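Q: I'm writing a short explainer about Acyl-CoA dehydrogenase for a general audience and would like to include a description of its predicted shape. Could you first generate the structure from this sequence?
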Amino acid sequence: MTINLELSEALQQTVERTHLAAEHVLRPISRKYDLAEHTYPVELDELAKVADEAQRQAAEKKAAEKQNGASVSGAASTDAGATMQALLSSLEMSWGDLGLLLSLPGRGLGNAAIAAVATPQQREKFAGVWAAMAITEPGFGSDSAAVSTTATRDGDDYVINGEKIFVTAGSRADHIVVWATVDKSAGRAAIKSFVVPRESPGVTVARVEDKLGIKSSDTAVVRFEDCRVPAENLLGSPEVNTEKSFGGVMQTFDNTRPLVAAMAVGISRAALEELRRLLEEAGLEIDYDRPVAAQHAAVAEYIRLEADYEATYLLALRAAWMADHGRPNSAEASMSKAKGGRTVTDLTTKTVELVGTLGYSEELMLEKWARDAKILDIFEGTQQIQNLIIARRLLDKSSAELR
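A: Of course. Here's the predicted structure. Afterward I'll give you a sentence or two in plain language.
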């Protein structure tokens, strides 16, 4: 499989725009909202408007090209790939602040679910919503097949009952994508995802969590009690197909896990840049032409961490490229996410250690990045779950054969 890792002009523009937003909007308020947990970052509203306008203009340009009969090759030059664009945007914005990225209106994890499995009509219906994603329940964590929240068909509606925990932006998003079973006896094949307006009768935000990191992003417990949603809010096909299991809803992760890897790359790069600055201020030169063993121990560690960072970046690019080209990428998505979570936690913790007391203090952002990083090794499937998925794909084993 040959992949061109050179970014197109359209992708370069995405990187430049989002980096400017991260540098001039997110970084300056990063510490402010880290210290003011549960306070909504109002500065994000204007940023979201700018992002929406840029997205609208890009869509209009693409539509105009098609209408004018642009050649296939010419159209491809401006259609950079939705997953790759989202990945690069996530990377740059996480360099600014991960929690603020997760709080940006209209950019929720549920939006990725809608993009992954919704029908064209549903994509049009839910265009412009801000959707959180509700999967985890009090009775399970990474085993998505253990969903106990129910969705019972009643006429033209589904009635949803259950409780979801650790819902990112669950108290702020205007919609929530809820995983529920339409038939418990059918097992995982009956698990579907539903788009539920947060203000619907029967939806209650029961609690907002206090957390180790990403404090600017609210994480909520959401309860559903006889909550009615129209049948057309079930994403994708309502058919319970035991042969396909719940591959449809799981496709969401194939899109979102590379984005989590990109978030890890963004924080890793921020920490590496700060570490390099401090090493150079201390008079330590990073020389790539000399053997690592012949350099200062701190420099040798920096080079090791930088290599892990580069590997994560390349794995994330590959997974996103495959998604945009219609290639099955479940293993690659898990590889990128597993490597990203492991790298960013190791890298940020080691950076705090190398810098010493300054790294542990709030004078620099290093301690904050170390706290923020840990969630990237947990949500969207833990490190252990990713390794299990990778093993299943490489060994061609089912979940029943390898658990």
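A: For your explainer, you could say: The radius of gyration is 22 Å.
Q: Perfect, that's easy to follow.
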